Amino acid sequence: MLVTVVLALLGFGITPSSAATPIAVSTAIGRQDGSTATVEGYVVGQPTATNTVVRSNFPNDYALALADSASQTGTSSMLYVQITSAFRSSYGLQSNPGLLGKKITVTGALGAYFSHAGLKNTTAFSGGGTTDPGPDPGDYYAGTEGKTGAALKAALHSIIADQTKLSYDQVWNALKDTDQDPANPNNVILLYSGRSQSKSTNGGDPNDWNREHVWAKSHGDFGTATGPGTDIHHLRPEDVSVNAARGNLDFDNGGSAVAECSGCTADGDSFAPRAAVRGDVARMIFYMAVRYEGTDGFADLELNNDVGNGSAPYMGRLAVLKAWSAADPPDIVEKRRNDIIHTTYQHNRNPFIDHPEWISSIWP
Fold first, then answer.
1. Cβ pair 143, 155 in contact under 8 A
2. Label partner for 96 (CA 20 to 30 A): which of 63, 110, 214, 294?
3. SS3 string of 238-301?
4. Which residues form a coiled coil (predicted)?
């Protein structure tokens, strides 16, 4: 203490411990008092307005957004960081787009930036080599060790049936979060067609987007009832007319092109989405067949190798869905969606996103 006082009296700068010890983004957001701090977090994009963060096509090197998780999409949980000129070539996202998802530490003054919680007048940057591993689902699947086939299916059902259920109205806002366009936080990505569309255009008019039940709600006759009818592990945004074109068709290869849905095909008894999401669709169907086993007042949903299943609680074709999952494995977008549903909404997971190898174990 005496050394510190003497050095201070002699004019030597002493860095406060609050600046030297990194704090979390959430702490920084709550401490917008002008003090100097070093903040540690994951780069999640570039702020371009108070409530807008882009994740691609970065306009310049002047700012970035930090969060405590690389999967964060809500701007209220982000810290907007001003990149001063000395650091733009090394930490600006236009010049260094590979920083997205990496952990860094930044020192600066805690204060509003873009009229948003921020870190300004930055004096130091470091890091950029560590990616966010995301939530560790290891303990979530305790009890599945060594199990295969029907025993594995039963164990997984017991785990994922423990969930928070949403109302059908709550699904609207949940999908605006889970299916947010990574490049434009004002939009969602439509599942089958792949179009990026304004979140505010949800509804029932032509070219609006609505809530598509990937496991068609007539297959088991559960409608929009709280439970399978509101389970966002299989509800996705889709163009109203494309949703109608899919209807309650089973899934299979072949058919004719579907209007407004590039890469999609359909015939009288089946539908195929664009190739980029066929695995996603398959894993949603496998989830439903495990989650709903006829034990909670709803039908026992199962897979078969048929099409034209109608109102029976079946979905096909199993062999095609298995092939789709193998050809299109889980990507970062699908994994992030699973994490958001688990941490924010239903608090359960789709096990076939975490462990796609379990598909062939349960359905050999």
1. yes
2. 110
3. EEHHHHHHHCCCEECCCCEEECCEEEEEECCCEEECCHHHHHHHHHHHHHHHHHCECCCCCCEC
4. none
Residue whose C-alpha is closest to residue 298's, from 356, 224, 214, 235: 224
Q: What are phi and psi of 205, to 5 degrees?
A: -80, 160
d(CA 360, CA 38): 48
**C-alpha dist (Å) from residue 215 to 171, 223, 320, 340:** 16, 11, 15, 20
pTM: predicted TM-score of the whole model, two decimal places: 0.70
Q: Is residue 207's pLDDT more than 60?
A: yes
Q: How confident is residue 182, by pLDDT bands cut at 50, 70 and 90?
A: confident
**Stretch 55-65: mean pLDDT:** 93
Q: How many CB atoms lie within 10 A of CB 192?
A: 27
pLDDT tens digit sequence for 151-164: 999 999 999 999 99
| Domains contained in the chain, CATH given | 16-131 (2.40.50.200), 139-362 (no CATH)
* The one-letter amino acid at 77: S
